[in-house]
Amino acid sequence: MHHTTNQVFIIGLGLIGSSLALGIKRDHPEVTTIGYDRSERTRTICLEKGIVDHVVDCLDEGLTNATVIFLAVPIKETVEMINYLAQADLREGVLITDTGSTKLEIVAAAEKELASRGISFIGGHPMAGSHKSGPLAADVNLFENAYYILTPTATTPVEELVFLKDLLSGLHARFIEIQAAEHDRVTSQISHFPHVLSASLMEQASHYAEGHGLTNQFAAGAFRDMTRIAESEPAMWTAILLSNQEAILDRIRDFQARLDRIAQLIQNGNQESIWNYFDNARSRRQSMEIHKRGGVESGFDIFVNVPDKEDVILSILELLRGTSLVNMHINEENREDIDGILQITFKNIKDRDTAKRLIEEKTSYQVTVK
Asked: What whole-number distance in Å separates Cα of residue 71 and Cα of residue 142?
């Protein structure tokens, strides 16, 4: 089946492909990594930075001896690549996997084209990303604690799954196996539809601002939090919407009905039902995984009560030099008092605990961990 000297061929050396290469090397230095990207500049960067062991200028060069092939390219290209690989000269027993954000269309193509040739394919979706792109942003810790979804085809042997998870052990991701169709339904609700909503809100507000100039000035807090994802990459989101049409259209229709319902309650002045509407939302959010470890932007949080003084945040950051901060946020919603709450998110539990200890030792601020 797989040879002791595995040759991993990564097609597409953007943020995901190059970070995968680094993760594979961390636990499996014996594996040879070969990279291909259409962009010559990207290939050069990856070679110079040692992200992969070798790069090839043409696709077929990397295919000949590969034992594992990663397709880290956009959805449409992934499907085209699957069709191409079905006709290519591949090594016996090769395993092919991808990193696409939607799975059904890709897995269907693999079942149709590859399975018929006896080639193993496992759909993959590492649920991690960054606002930065390209190999210069490559990060060995990109997938740490993130969910890495695997969607095997009907014919995938179980030992192939075991092998792939072991190959990717250095990513420190959390692997979950689900069916491609279910993956696309779940992501339509928690990722794809929210992006549609965020972009629509942005469009609505910018249009409204033409007649109401203060709209742009006051757009903080709630509006900022709900539209952050509107800055996402348009080409990627176009491809996602078009490869998951049915599920996303279903979520849009469902939401339209919910908006109609709350509009009706407002129209009727139904105080109790409106109160319940908000109360249900609040309690559901509090009980959701978002507050536990393991959302997509998985992190470990501390909450520091900080006085409203200059330099407070700088002094805290100074203490935390060298720990892996993922995010920080000042929570000023529902402030009963004058202290703000500084929420700091870390990549792992070790850094979170170190930060808590340092802040408690060196300052008088109250630190809580949820």
From this structure: 18
